[in-house]
Amino acid sequence: MSKITIALEAAVQTVIENAPKDGKQTNRQRAEIDRAFARILKLIAPRIRHFIRQYGLTAHWDDAEQCCAIAVHRAIQAYEPEKAQFTTFVNWQIRGELQSLRFRLMTDQRPSAKKVEATTVSLSAMVSSADGDEMSPEAMIEDEDALERTESAASDYLADGAISSLIEAYVDHLRKVGIEQLRRRPRPKREEAALRREGPRLRTATHGIDPAELEKLEAKLERDREIVARRVFQTATLDDLSLETGVTKERVRQITKRAAKVIAEIAAADPRFSVMAEYGEPATAKRRQPAAARNATPILPDASQPHNLLSSVVAIDAASIDTVVAAEANRETVEAIAIAAAPLANRAALH
Length: 351
Prior knowledge:
This protein has 351 residues and is an all-alpha fold. Helices cover 69% and strands 1% of the residues. The protein contains 15 helices and two strands. It has a two-stranded antiparallel ribbon.
């Protein structure tokens, strides 16, 4: 056993003896522990310097020394002389603390980080702004418009989803109408007889329709889908759509006009688009109502309001109203007579 190991064992024994588990620690005991701990750090100082260089933490020397001091404290607390010498305990504690520090400060030194050439940046470090004032990176990367852009992007996403659903519903409507028209077309007698023999049980929506006609219908639907999406919900012009789709400008105008009407009806009938239907409802309802109804204000208070929950409204018939009016008129007449007779009464009292 070397002299350093013997000195370490004696210093650690001093710390353990002056740290009673039960009872209050005296000032003398605390002073003995501080002196013994200082001797331990002085004895293992060369070892600490070696480990700091080994783990590549020379640029963070102060932090590494603090971690080593914490490692010595933990080694003393976990020291068991029966299992090994204190040198073994303190070596493993120092290695663990320095390894943890390196992972916290130098994340880019890991093999996984080296593969992608990652560089670690400390967000707690202080940097200088353009004006020369110190500020944290958190303040530099703060985006004041992030909330507004997020809400705008969410609104655009929901709007795009609603538009896609409306267009799909409109195309499904056109598909049903187109298939029904194809089924109503006159067929040869031989084909009609074959369909009657199979019976309605075996028929489907497209049963008995020429596949070539169905392909033409689907091509037409795709063309109408593009026209409606770009003309109704985007800013495409009639000239651009006419050149790209091969449809005349008048036909494009007719398709979009019919699509706008049908889509409005779908939005009003489908619960999924009730918000859209309600958004345009007040203006339409206001145009349909007469002027007297639009300007009329309710006479009775709103019973759903909290301050009107205890109020009650009682209907009065016409006969009761006449009685109340007559009584009020008689009361006013009596008061007028009394006022007129008051001067006469005062004059009689003076005589």
